[in-house]
Specification:
single chain; 370 residues; alpha/beta; D-Maltodextrin-Binding Protein, domain 2; six-stranded mixed sheet; 11 strands; globular
Length: 370
Amino acid sequence: MKRFFGLGIFLLFSLAFGGCLQSSSAPNASGGSESPAASSPASKDLKAIRVQLSFLMQSLDAPLVVAINKGYFKQEGLDVSFERGFGNNDTISKLGTGKFDLAFSDIYNTLEFNSKNPAEKIKAVAMIQNRAPFAIVTFKDKGIATPKDLATRKLGAPAGDGPRKLFPLFAKEVGIAPDSVTWMTMEPKLRETFLLQGQVDAVSGFSTSVIPSLLKGGKKMDDLQVFYYDESGLDFYGNAILAKADYIDKNPEVVKSFVKAYLKGVQDVIKDPTAGLDAVVAADPSKLISREAEKARLQIALERMFLSPEVDRIGLGDSDPKRLQKSIDQTVTGFKLPGSPKVADVFTDQFLPPKAERQAPPAAERKPLS
């Protein structure tokens, strides 16, 4: 975690991986080719599915990689390939054009896309992250001990950053004026650099992106002060599996099969996160991925995103309608969207497996991440 992977290394990784396409027939984590289960359809009978990630392949994508390696998609008659994304907004836009069949992104930017593109509406078919990693991150030596201390400070984030767009709501919840802070705008790849260099006092973003980058920049967890939005009245869901509404209507069995196989991958990663992490590292063609940074990212996901009391109650992939509607209403206010969208406009649970098949593994079956 303590080593600094400079901007040059990051750019090299991005270039090396940017054009890469992974497939369910790709080599698995052990280096050999995957052997489909005996009950799997022959390769020529598999339906090709194109998937886009929300960003570069990360440990957050371990369920997808594990499900590919173990042949879960092939057992469902699917040949899944995926490409890196360039941020949630870009992923949603490309899904809207039909370049991909399914994608991983959030429903809140989806609401904004749908309001601007009513003829190309997108829906979530499974909520894969029960809580969003929206956060404000700063350093303890900045003297910002509580969210109220952000007043009069300089914050940094890309212009389209979701947590930045929702900051007025966060400010209201914590008791400061939204305009009491000054914002500096930068490219996503420079956000943590600006914080490390002291050009801003804090940044908004996904904790799963910001924290690993700061750790690679030489900081320790004890150096960081993290204010999560869900601890201040903005209890949002994280990323979901998305598809265009017309694709869902034309391919209901495909969507159902993909969700089923993916959630099996989630269960495996919860049981053995180290194996999931190793699978992601092995699948990286550039071999530049930092295992320590990805371990930190996956640990955050396990503690704050994949598992929760709500997941124990409703199962993996589902949502609580009242909670989801509240976050939709908050998004409409924060993003200044027209209309009054309802849960059914952006999420459907009809493609989820029965609840008994998508329970989170009990604590006794979960290995620690190492």
